Amino acid sequence: MLSASHTRARLAGQLAGLGVERGGVLMVHASLRAVGAVDGGVRAVSGALRDVLGPRGTLVVPAFTPENSDTSPHYRARVRGLGDREREAVRAAMPAFDPATTAAPSMGRLAETVRRSPGSVRSAHPQTSFAAAGPLAGHVVAGHRPDCHLGEESPLARLYELRAQILLLGTGFSSCTAFHLAEYRVPSPPRRTYRCVVGDSGVRRWWEYEDVALDDSDFAALGADFERSGRAPAVTAGSVGSAPSRLFRFPEAVGFATRWLPAHRHGGAGDCLSP
Predict the structure, then answer these.
(1) Are 170 and 31 in contact (CB under 8 A)?
(2) What is the pLDDT of residues 60-71, one digit of tens each?
(3) Which DSSP string corresponds to 26-43?
(4) HSE (side-chain half, CA atoms, 13 Å) at 179
(5) What is the DSSP string of 123-166?
(6) Which of 25, 67, 77, 237 has a CA positioned 20 to 30 A from the CA of residue 2?
(7) What angle do CA 27, 63, 200 make, to 5 degrees?
């Protein structure tokens, strides 16, 4: 016997029960597969989030684009086993980033739905942009410096200042981009070179820049320690649809990570899954 689909109203009730604040600012990382079947699909999930936040609430999602970079793990996986000519063909076909039109397929269907929703806005970083909808959306995405992936001149810092909530909707702490802000706040973080395709007055060109070497390889362990830290209520857990979910605040997560990273990391940085 097939199980019944979840409804938008039921999801909104579960989100409210988990602690999502009406009128608040919420960043979401979501796995719709984990949520399960929903009447109305991804639009109903997005609608449930907007319902519980209300008209004064702001919804934020990552809209990262590793597809336009040749320094990303995404690119290395795509060209693995190819010859020089084939690799060059892949690079030549990469479209220049356009915040108004460039899709973010690796971020999932919910992020794409929010990015494309009427009235949504997007930050201008060519690899690690964020999309937002709601009264504070413009403030969240403004001033995202192109040589600052996820640091003080990115939406993560604005979300920290706003004491935004973070919802892991069927995803683990390995997806928690907030922890990256802590990488910028530890003493003398390692740096590396990044390269991606951008548009410059209608001309496609490669742009190379240096930024903090992002590494999410230990975020699952970091998140587990954060959840066990006992600073009640650091993390609230519950189900939304069929998805095990967690809710917590930016300052608490970033503060814990800023203390945790220097004590647990030794040696060079690894790879972020995004840029």
Answers:
(1) yes
(2) 999 999 999 999
(3) EEEEE-HHHH--BTTHHH
(4) 26
(5) ---SSS-EEEESTTHHHHHTT--TT-SSSTTSHHHHHHHTT-EE
(6) 237
(7) 140
